[in-house]
Design a protein that fits this description.
Number of strands: 22
Largest sheet: 5 strands, parallel
Helix content: 25-40%
Pathway: Purine metabolism; IMP biosynthesis via de novo pathway; N(1)-(5-phospho-D-ribosyl)glycinamide from 5-phospho-alpha-D-ribose 1-diphosphate: step 2/2
Cofactor: Mg(2+); Mn(2+)
Protein name: Phosphoribosylamine--glycine ligase
GO molecular function: ATP binding; metal ion binding; phosphoribosylamine-glycine ligase activity
CATH class of the largest domain: Alpha Beta
Catalytic activity: 5-phospho-beta-D-ribosylamine + glycine + ATP = N(1)-(5-phospho-beta-D-ribosyl)glycinamide + ADP + phosphate + H(+)
Distance between the termini: 47 Å
């Protein structure tokens, strides 16, 4: 099977890495890819949003399956164009991808489906939104840009004053352009976050191993929100009982509601869950593999990923053998550029990649890198996802941070506490 992966980040590198190891896969291409995917596969210099050229490439090169990594091509309708050309593709259609493309749509369809989530209001007028904030008894709230904002459009506000400022930035100053023409203001949920990813072929749902992301920039879950500073799998907070509840109360109702709405869902459905004292509540849905959860989860997959994704795209997940997983846990530590998630510089030469990649049970996934001359240099905010497995979480963490210590560039930084929450739980 010849497979094309669309995208250029750490998630796509993890997909490429596992597909390359799949017995059913003979050739892997990545468009546009990065220096890491260029080692594990063949890079194709077509941008992820250039649908016409990607379709042309898939036809010309007899691609058996295309796997879309990032959300923007999905929301723009890449799957619809591939299907029009009778090409197999893993991911939701444009109408189904609105589940991630619009926070307003996601909240409204959750309400219709009876999916547990925080109470919310939608605004396009700043004065009305601020008036609502002033009337609330709770100082805290969450303000979300309606559209896609590269993982930065969600702000957990600790006070009404902070919420007012965020609302002005989004609705008046158009901080995220058209993505913040509308905002969602919702109650702030208290608990612990977990990520549950599931493969969905329109009717059958196959949950993947659990993971926990770290959205805040700094240790102790402090600082601004980011696209994700690290992850580990499995997440001890996601017990088999909790997974069953999420499947029954969240995934099944939303998949059925999407079908009723004429938006049948195929692809990877990612539920960001807050585990509260009242039970699990949905924070958000994504319509693709999470980043960096994918790096941690796929590092543990032993099944043939090519066959798994093809079954999902073909609507035959019910015929698939149960997925096989490495019982050892994994930890992914994101190394970021100085200044991220704000403005950051690019083009810093990266040292120590070979040394880190040569360590046992370690894989360095490239996220924001490029080649300049003979050097791999930084080219994004989140630069690398250093991922490792171990016999237990402390050992997986140790392996990951040993690899991190090998890698250097001017301004490199990372959180030092990835997986500590889970380790503390296991000690208790």
């Amino acid at each position: 099977m010849r497979v094309l992966v669309v995208g250029q980040g750490g998630r796509e590198h993890a997909l490429v890495y596992q597909l390359k190891r799949s017995p059913s896969v003979t050739e892997v291409y990545c468009a546009p890819g990065n220096p890491g995917t260029g080692v594990d596969a063949t890079n194709v210099f077509i941008q992820a949003t250039d649908t016409a050229k990607l379709v042309e490439f898939a036809i010309k090169n007899k691609i058996d399956l295309t796997v879309v990594g990032p959300e923007i091509p999905l929301v723009n309708g890449i799957v619809d164009e591939f299907l029009k050309n009778d090409l197999k593709i893993f991911g939701p259609t444009k109408k189904a991808a609105e589940l991630e493309g619009s926070k307003k749509f996601a909240k409204e369809i959750m309400k219709k489906a009876g999916v547990p989530t925080a109470d919310f209001r939608v605004f396009s007028n700043a004065a009305e939104a601020i008036s609502y904030i002033d009337e609330r008894t709770d100082e805290r709230c969450v303000v979300k840009a309606d559209g896609l904002a590269a993982g930065k459009g969600v702000v957990v506000c600790q006070s009404k004053a902070e919420a007012r400022e965020v609302i002005k930035k989004m609705l008046v100053q158009k901080q995220f352009g058209t993505a913040s023409q509308q905002i969602v203001v919702e109650d702030c949920l208290i608990g612990e976050e977990a990520s549950i990813l599931a493969l969905v072929d329109g009717s059958t749902i196959v949950p993947l191993e659990s993971a926990q992301d770290h959205k805040a920039a700094h240790d102790g879950d402090t600082g601004p929100n980011t696209g994700g500073m690290g992850a580990y799998s499995p997440a001890p907070i996601v017990t088999s009982e909790l997974t069953d509840i999420v499947v029954e109360k969240v995934l099944v109702p939303i998949v059925h509601e999407m079908k009723r709405e004429g938006r049948p869902f195929r692809g990877c459905l990612y539920a960001g869950i807050m585990v509260t004292a009242q039970g699990p509540r949905v924070l958000e849905f994504n319509v693709r593999f999470g980043d960096p959860e994918t790096q941690a989860v796929l590092m543990r997959l032993k099944s043939d990923l090519g066959q798994v994704l093809l079954a999902c795209a073909s609507g035959t997940l019910d015929q698939l053998e149960p997925l096989e997983w490495d019982p050892r846990p994994s930890v992914c530590v994101v190394m970021a550029a100085e200044g991220y998630p704000g403005d950051y510089s690019k083009g810093k030469p990266i040292r120590g990649l070979d040394e880190a990649g040569g360590l046992p049970d370690v894989k360095v996934f490239h996220a924001g890198t490029k080649i300049t001359g003979e050097h791999v240099v930084t080219d994004g905010g989140r630069v690398l996802g250093v991922t490792a497995v171990g016999d237990d979480l402390p050992q997986a963490k140790l392996h990951a941070y040993q690899a991190v210590k090998c890698i250097r560039w001017d301004g490199a930084w990372c959180r030092k506490d990835i997986s500590d929450k889970a380790i503390r739980k296991s000690v208790k």
